[in-house]
Write a structure and sequence with these properties.
mainly alpha
């Protein structure tokens, strides 16, 4: 089941999350290169980076406040 044309923001977010994790099949990467909207990729990356930084700050805050 392959999608034609541009894909949804949810698919873009999934692709960005897999890239943050560092695991991606080359076939999926090639499909993403032709199907994903570049503006969605940028937005998803900024959102994912902000969430990641927020989680790191929360973890550090919890560790420091327990000491």
């Amino acid at each position: 089941m392959e999608q034609k044309g541009k894909s949804s923001f949810a698919r873009t977010m999934k692709a960005v999350m897999w890239s943050f994790f560092g695991v991606r099949r080359s076939r999926d990467h090639a499909a993403d290169a032709t199907q994903l909207n570049p503006l969605h990729v940028i937005a998803a990356a900024v959102i994912a980076a902000a969430v990641f930084i927020g989680v790191l700050i929360a973890i550090v805050h919890m560790v420091v406040s327990k000491g």
